[in-house]
Amino acid sequence: MNKKVWRSIFAGLLTAATILAPFAPAQAASARIKDIVNIEGVRENQLVGYGLVVGLNGTGDSLNSSPFTKQSLQAMLERLGVNTRGESVRTANVAAVMVTANLPPFGTQGSKIDVSVAAMGDAGSLQGGTLLVTPLLGADGEVYAIAQGPVTINGFKAQGDAATVISGVPTTGRISSGAIIEREIGFELGAQRTLRLALRNPDLTTARRVALSINDFIGVPTATPEDPSTVRVTLPKGFNGNIVDLLTDVEQLVVETDAPAKVVIDENSGIIVMGRDVRVSTVAVAQSGLTVTIAENPTVVQPLPFSNGTTQVEPSTNLNVNQTNSDLTVVPESVTLQSLVDGLNALGITPRDLIAILQAIKATGALQAEIQVM
């Protein structure tokens, strides 16, 4: 075979490689199963309570403006044997607050959790305050924890006669290990024979890959994908351990995650996030900018000397309209996200203009992705 034939074959292979290279599948993202699923029954529970913070240096609620603070203060004093009904109570060292916390999964009785405190009334700051005993209730109305302790805030407020300086939010705070768990939530994970794994980002392909990865590792059909967000795992017969041992073994398995093509737009901040699989067909885009400048330059007209006229202000407006036109620019059919970004960046547009362009491209049917506006 002569050199010309070899050169022709080599050139053909090089051309084919150049054409097919952009069509190579994008590298999928890999993650551990424990990072992409939630286990049924292993969850936090929200707790909430109402309490009083005392010891404030004159930055508490105004009792006349916050009647709930006054009523709570009187009720607390009555429980302590002090009767203040009908008396005029004036103090600025007490603030009514809402206390929130998250009860961790399998939290045991006697263990401590962190709590957050937020003022309800017109208190200026919770600095130096101490939260009094506050029951924390769950959604069922039962008390699951008791909170109390000094409040730590992340800001401050300094005020004078003519100026005020506020840093951060001094009306919210946190108490580290400020609540003691008094009631446990009964759930025996080790006694379960079957559990469901809930995908944090539901997807049919990812659910099937999770099930296949678990079954390949165990060697028997143990996991079954039920829907895009659920994979049911059953403890196999003869397994040396309980469901906790099984979950410990499979949560370290690595799977390739998948997700539908999506464009997320936050119009308030002008942020645009596009997924890896976003594709766009060939479209032509033109953008024009219109700038209108209005300047007011009023002129003061004085009357002549010794006349009966008055000083008048004559309005004067300078109006300037500047319109920049742009020719149609072709955005070629994109194979990768980088190609799409490069094509749109070539227009030299701002993120807010890009939002409108993406929505217009979606309206034409050329954008193969879902647009989610936040």
Automatic annotation (TrEMBL):
One of its GO terms (molecular function) is structural molecule activity. The keyword Protein biosynthesis does not apply. The basal body constitutes a major portion of the flagellar organelle and consists of four rings (L,P,S, and M) mounted on a central rod. Assembles around the rod to form the L-ring and probably protects the motor/basal body from shearing forces during rotation. Keywords: Bacterial flagellum, Cell projection, Cilium, Flagellum, Periplasm, Signal. One of its GO terms (biological process) is bacterial-type flagellum-dependent cell motility. Residues 1-28 form the signal peptide. It comes from the Bacteria. The gene is flgI. This is Flagellar P-ring protein. GO terms for cellular component: bacterial-type flagellum basal body, distal rod, P ring; outer membrane-bounded periplasmic space. Belongs to the FlgI family. It is found in: Bacterial flagellum basal body.
